[in-house]
Amino acid sequence: MIKFTTLTAALGLAASSALAGGYVAPVVEPEPVIVEEEPASSNAGLVVPALLLLGVIAAVASDDDDT
Fold this sequence. Notes:
- The chain crosses the membrane at residues 44-61.
- This is Ferrochelatase.
- The chain is mainly α.
- Helices cover 52% and strands 0% of the residues.
- The chain is built from 2 helices and no strands.
- The protein has helices at residues 2-18, 44-61.
- The longest helix has 18 residues, at 44-61.
């Protein structure tokens, strides 16, 4: 009977210390979302040739060869 009481006491002490803290929900921190934005382009590479083309068209249209 003493062995049974000792075993019961040891299991009782071990069980109470194992459950002493209770349940704690894990803390999950959200990862920051990184959005890479492309720099805004003004399409200046198309504006200059378009203006030159308009200038050439205007020069050809205003050419007078009425001799």
